[in-house]
Design brief:
With 615 residues, this protein is of the alpha+beta class. The protein has four domains: 137 residues, Trypsin-like serine proteases (Thrombin, subunit H), CATH 2.40.10; 144 residues, Beta Barrel (Thrombin, subunit H), CATH 2.40.10; 121 residues, Dna Ligase, domain 1; 161 residues, no CATH class. 16% of the residues lie in helices and 41% in strands. It has a six-stranded antiparallel beta barrel. Helix 7 runs antiparallel to helix 9. The longest helix has 17 residues. The protein starts with a helix and ends with a strand. 45% of the residues are buried.
Amino acid sequence: MNIRNAAIVFTFAAVAFPVYAADAPLPRPKAGKVEIMRLGEIKPGMKGTAWTVFQGTEAEPVPVEIVGLWKNAWGPRQDIILAKLGGKAIRTNVAGGMSGSPVYVGGKLVGAVALRLSVFSPDAICGITPIELMLEINDFDHSRPQDARTPDKLQARGREVSVPGELLGQPVAGGASPMMVPIEAPLVFSGFTESTLREFGPMFQQLGITAVQGGGAGTALHTNQPAAGWEHSLNPGEAVAGVLVDGDMSVTGLGTVTYNDGKRVLAFGHSFFNLGPVDMPMSKGEVLMTLSSSYQPNKFANATDIVGSLHQDRHSGIMGVLGARSDMIPVTMKVRSLDAAEAVRSEKDFHFNIFVQQKWTPYLMMLTLYNSISGLNEFVDEATYRLNGKVELSGQRNVSLSTMQASGDMPMPAPMMLAGWFGDKLNRLYLNNVNPPDVTRVTVTVDLLPERRVAAIENAWVATPEVQAGDEVPVKVFLRPYRGEPLQREFKVKIPSGLAKGDHRILLSDAETVNRMQNMAGMMNRFIDVAGTVSLLNQERTNNKLYVSLVESSPTAYYDDKTLPSLPASVLNVMQAGRASNRSLFTSPETATEQMALPFDYVVSGSYSLRIHVK
């Protein structure tokens, strides 16, 4: 049955009278059909009742007096109902987490408490989103709002960094905030360290989300299957949460249920992230307490049982379906602390699931990785983090993950650099413009090494610069570590038998030098698909090896995820003339043929060239 038609059937007589006029406690609202009060019926001075949870799981009545209609406050032809709350709300004011609290007048559902006038107002003045606007949510299917609140929007405002940090804590712009603003839906972080919230909190704040540290979530959050008894959950006025992360750590957005027809649930009265169509687990909530504050009153709550799935996140509210199931990405992170001999001193295993959304999933992966390692001496000067893992995909090859990050003189700590590297890999996978990836599992192991393992390529030596095709040439390379004696390696480079006579180079380099051209070609092509992106990610060299390449003077073309070395000029001209205008073709005047990769358990940087002459 359509949610709009189901709403307008019969009067909810249980809340027909204001709570302060009743001689006996009013029965709490229950799921089912209810008559609505349209905007044309709203008059100043009307008395009503709002329902919200102040502590525990049961909604309590709050007296409401209608102040009037604020015309076009929510947008063109979208009015907001101004009201004043009484009862406990006089002490708590309009607190974060009250978003969606249903308001009834004369037994009719008016709308949801969704906005507040000012954090310093002595009166509990709120804005009520009319139920008529909320019922329109189901009229939208797959359209995506342009003003969705996603982490990439911070970059669009002029940021040059893609990871949270001190820079993201600065205000985006000056000027006063609007007088009437949506009530913050607290984003409750359970199992997260104070340093994680300190680093990532400003990013959520700039997106209009208040980050709140919470306690342990319910055991049912370890599965995305709806819990038993979901059919009778989320009555109007009760706490509801959207689940972004669950398991050993959880991230949930808390609000209040406005309407429940027995299957579909409306809540918040404003957007969560304004993502449009979503597939996010929906859970019940338990309010620990409601903090009274003239600056930032908030509910402190835990998400408990998963009972359904959120399907819409729109301007005027969110809509979920009871009993529905949302797929999440299972993640396993093992974090080990090693001694100088690389024996394991301690280790922790984390298991959790992450909400699937192309712009939020990479940032949630980054957030949880940082949190997993932030408790392991994250700001130690002499430390190196070594990551290995894989991203498993349905119908595609797995993505292999391998890198090292060492502490140093940079202002950003190594754990954040490691998390940023990890998030970038997922970001490239999810933001391809052809088809979304189907990630089935992510597995990561991070080792903490008790020393700064960095080494720069300092010098190299070749036995003789005059060689013949087919020779094996002895080479030495010297690397300068952060402290200690230089590292030396000896090896032989095979000169191909077909190499042309003349001058060539032996290039000794780090991973960044080898990856540069191919990465540029891949990023400039806007139409590379999941398979091509996976191929590019797996071709990237890791930064704990030294790469030996033979460089000759013949052009190389980089096209999508393919490297085409030593191309004849005629072939290159044909490719350039025949390529589509929207597909990038990068060329280099030289061809570097990788001969070998020398493993170093150090972050290797720099490059060095040795000139040879083939006789």
